[in-house]
Amino acid sequence: MTDEKDAFDLQLFLPYLLNQAAEAASLDFARVYKDRYGLLRTEWRVLFHLGLYGGMTAQEIGARASMHKTKISRAVARLETRRFLSRSRDAADRRRENLELTVAGRRVYDDLFDVAQRYEAQLTEGLSRQELAALRGHLTRLAGRGTRPAAPD
E strands, the chain, where? Predict the structure, then answer.
């Protein structure tokens, strides 16, 4: 075995570490929206996109959230069944459906928005403003919303 392989620490391998951090942060928050409203992760994400940005199409949500259209379609169907969102055909393009939160969906969103803000504050407690800004900047870049190096061969 080479020295390089001997020195490799999986616990510090960045993709592994990022995944561990994301899972830890997501699981705690997921308990809240699952326990309170029975939502799945994709449903929460669709709900929050509509709450934050207003009416959108499933395709627009997919582009913003980097989610596959099949997952969005299932989430939309469940949210509609629970009367958290409504669909309407686009008058200009009958192939498109506009999605909007209902009054009940807006109530769920408002409640979870407050919880999300408190949760993030607890999660980042102890970080300075500069550290938090740097962390967000680095994660945004790594998530592909900035410049990212090509994968090695």
Answer: 85-89, 97-101
